[in-house]
Design a protein that fits this description.
Elements (H helix, E strand, L loop, with lengths): L2 E3 L9 E6 L15 E7 L6 E8 L3 E6 L5 E6 L11 E7 L6 E8 L5 E6 L5 E6 L5 E5 L9
Antiparallel strand pairs: 1-2, 2-3, 3-4, 5-6, 6-7, 7-8, 9-10, 10-11
């Protein structure tokens, strides 16, 4: 279960924890959890987690935050995106006050079962490594043809 935590970079706001869990049988798991993404608020004194939001997503298996902490990207460890033998990547806007996320875009990774991903330090590209194809793709961020509008 991938987890990302923290307030937006450069802020002292509340800490939120983002958790992804498999939603269907392999590739990518078998828990059959219908949710996918969960957002929790962390109590600074105790570390206890309180549920904030649940978002349906297909096998979200890895998360990366952009350098500014204003959006998160998730790999969807699937092999059937839009009827193609491909996985996908999703981008979500993060509300820094509430921690909630809102889907911005979803894009094919052009290869099945994406695993690891990372946003480059400039925040302009998303690098996605794929399990099955043994390859990687670079998806643009912040352009009309990219992952984030």
């Amino acid at each position: 279960m991938p987890i990302a935590a923290g307030p937006a970079v450069g802020t002292s706001g509340p800490m939120f924890v983002y958790v992804g869990s498999y939603t269907k049988d392999p590739p990518g798991g078998g828990s059959n959890n219908p949710v996918g993404l969960s957002v929790f608020r962390s109590d600074p004194a105790t570390g206890a987690l309180s549920p904030v939001q649940e978002v349906k997503s297909a096998n979200p298996s890895f998360v990366a935050l952009d350098p500014r902490g204003v959006f998160s990207t998730w790999s969807n460890e699937i092999d059937d995106y839009e009827g193609q033998k491909s996985g996908s990547a999703e981008a979500y806007a993060i509300n820094p006050a509430t921690g909630t996320i809102q889907l911005l875009n979803r894009q094919s990774t052009n290869s099945p079962t994406p695993a690891h991903l990372a946003v480059d330090p400039t925040g302009r590209n998303l690098l996605v490594a794929n399990y099955i194809g043994g390859d990687f793709v670079v998806l643009p961020i912040g352009r009309t043809d990219g992952l984030v509008p």
